[in-house]
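Dear V.,

Thank you for sending over the compound details. I've combined the ligand you provided, NAP, with the protein sequence from our construct and run the structure prediction for the complex. I'm sharing the raw inputs here so there's no ambiguity about protonation or stereochemistry in the SMILES, which I know was a concern on your side last time.
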Amino acid sequence: MGTALITGATAGLGLEFAWQLATARHDLVLVARDTERLERVAGHLHAAAGVHVEVLAADLSDRADVDRVADRLRSTERPVGLLVNNAGFAVRQRFVDGDLDREERAFDVMVRAVMVLSHAAAGPMTARGRGAILNVASVAALTASGTYSAHKAWVRSFTEGLAVELAGTGVTATVLCPGFVHTEFHERAELDMGAVPEAAWLRADDVVATALADVRRGAVISTPSVRYRLVSALLRTLPRSAVRAVGSHRPGSRAR
Ligand SMILES: NC(=O)c1ccc[n+]([C@@H]2O[C@H](COP(=O)([O-])OP(=O)(O)OC[C@H]3O[C@@H](n4cnc5c(N)ncnc54)[C@H](OP(=O)(O)O)[C@@H]3O)[C@@H](O)[C@H]2O)c1
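Below is the predicted structure of the protein with NAP bound, written out as structure tokens.
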């Protein structure tokens, strides 16, 4: 897969992708907003794994920044063979009386950037006849929990459609649909996750190892753990009225 470009590479799943890909001898391009943290992570990865690590500071809610990342994906110098569209955050508000700016930022990072960067990567990859795109959605894609699940449903559906379009080109598209994972995600959004039982949590290293194995075998949908494969099967078969009822009682949601 050559060089891998990972968005949201400084924490949680993105950082774990960076470590596992570096260990597998892939050069890296790391994308996130915090430049200092990017440089620190790049230094650790280069020192530990000896791979070439570039950093690209970008806010994916900013169109000009997304364009800079897209330009890197089109570059023929150290061409990107794996794009991991991972950056994201919890919206954590009701829609009707919530802050519309926050909604737009969430949409831009988790939907618009995924579309623009997939487009920028897919052209050169198909021209070379090889490559892979991994988009991080969530099991929430199958639920009805606010705009976050709508964004993740878009990512899931978009990636499936992309995989169909890419069939036979040598390029694959995979969507990762994890359940709860121990990362900075909930803490950053100040979500109270106390009600979620320990058995519901996944480890970032297990999630990423499953996702990369699924990318390597060309799977379209990657759902780490038997537990969450069962949850996903249940969400796909339950009547939507039952799914909506679960969504209205999701952990971390503010009861009001
Ligand atoms: N954790 C879970 O339970 C879970 C479950 C299902 C799906 N997911 C999905 O997994 C993905 C990764 O989440 P995580 O749990 O690893 O979260 P995390 O630990 O909070 O890490 C988020 C990463 O995204 C970057 N980021 C956030 N906003 C950004 C922006 N505007 N522009 C560029 N980079 C940005 C952050 O760096 P900077 O702050 O420096 O930009 C950080 O590197 C997300 O798409 C999330 O929706 C998570």
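A first observation: The chain has a mean pLDDT of 95.

Warm regards,
I. M.
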